[in-house]
Amino acid sequence: MSSPSPNPSSSFNPPKSILIVGSGVFGLSTAWSLAKRPEFSKTKITIVDRSSFPAPDGSSIDTSRIIRPDYADPAYAALAAKAHETWRQQGPDELGGSGRYSESGLTLVANRGSNGLPYVRSSYENVLALNKGTPNEGTVHELKSSEEIKNCVRTGGTNGNWGYINTRSGWADAEASMIWLRKQVEATKRVTFLIGTVCSLLYSSASSVEGVKLSDNTAIKADLTILATGAWTPTLVDLRGRCQATGQVLSYIDISDAEQAALAKMPVLLNMSSGMFVIPPANNILKVARHGYGYTNPTTMPCPSPNPSPADTTICCPRTALDDPTLWIPQEGEMACHRALREMEATGWNGRKDQKKIIQDSNSSDDINLY
Predict the structure, then answer these.
(1) Which of 202, 207, 204, 237 has the alpha carbon at shortest distance from 220?
(2) What is the pTM of this model?
(3) Nearest Cα to 224, choosing from 79, 39, 54?
(4) What CA dihedral angle connects 6, 7, 8 and 14, to 10 degrees?
(5) How many CB atoms sit inside 10 A of residue 319's CB?
(6) Long-range contacts: 311-318, Cβ < 8 Å, 24+?
(7) By C-alpha distance, which of 254, 255, 230 is closest to 24?
């Protein structure tokens, strides 16, 4: 949807109704933005989601997500830095308040000679450029060796042999932040929430969408339909050759009070050579995960198109613990998590019996940034 012209005499006519499919971070933030804009004051806004909120297998709902401007792309780094300003607002009713955001610092590392090193170097240069001439100068420090990384992480082990720490980055309680966002949307009294599983789009012509059809054959029509459906989008739109949803490794381990106290002061650790990251624990749960290409779940289904050709197609469809309560991280991913823990903690974590693991389909993102 194009932005309306600021010229009052422009011919922009806002839609009379907008339907948003999905109440994750993109769906809720879109609804919140629209509800606050005067141009849409007479527009009916509806959100439909297949689950009650918060969705237990939505990629926006989790114990934690990294909050950082530390990206290799300059434009994206600048955008994330803008979002970071909101996360750092710590009033009890503000996004970052009441423990929703923790500024632990981020140690971004790589192994010399690996494919991940250029990313870390570019990210380092970007955050230095963003901080230049601002009060934030001096909050980013180069780590030139494994020993410097070890001293920075303070967990007894090491990971990578070159990188830096940005002391202004951190992590968010993802679920608590989403609950906060939902309350902001509800407070506008402009948005209607519905529960229903969208099985297909409704087309008035070969290229014009007029709404959605639910699994019970109910039709919901709107002038504008917005899909904020994350990894489920390929079930509604033919995205072959454009993008593919993958399942990512997220693992959790119960830790003791002493381990919680010892690890709570560590920075977020993200290794761009291995893709492994560790987030400081909260409530005696330590999260270890991997950002990577992920796993696919090929599924044959009718082609999601008004004129399907072929009639059936194979897509990567999300498979979560709601579909299979026994779902477990593939052995390869589990071993990678063990290796990351052994590298981070010199005393080692092998043999722990109280581990809890899940695998969740998502969009290969380890962050939530609200803009």
Answers:
(1) 202
(2) 0.89
(3) 39
(4) -60
(5) 19
(6) 313/238, 313/240, 315/234, 315/235, 315/239, 315/240, 315/244, 315/245, 316/234, 316/244, 316/245, 316/246, 317/232, 317/234, 317/235, 317/245, 318/57, 318/231, 318/232, 318/245, 318/247, 318/361
(7) 230
* Residues β-bridged to residue 356: 252
C-alpha–C-alpha distance, residues 357 and 268, integer Å? 20
CA angle 317, 319, 323 (to 5 degrees): 130
DSSP conformation class of 259: H
> Which two structure tokens, joined as six digits, stand for 344?
């981070």
H or E, element range at 224: strand 224-227
* Tokens standing for residue 269: 């650790």
Query: Positive or negative, the Cα torsion across 35, 40, 41, 42?
Result: negative
Give the pLDDT confidence of 120-162 residue by residue, as tens digits: 999 999 999 999 999 999 999 999 999 999 999 999 888 899 9
Q: At which residue do the structure tokens 């090193």 appear?
A: 117
- In this predicted structure, what is the pLDDT of residue 8? 53
The token duo for 69 is 């401007």
Do 294 and 248 contact (CB within 8 A), yes or no? yes
- Rounded CA separation 364/294 (Å): 7
In the predicted model, residues of the chain with pLDDT beneath 70 are 1-10, 309, 346-371
Cα–Cα distances (Å) from 188 to 89, 185, 223, in that order, read: 21, 6, 21
The residue count for the chain: 371
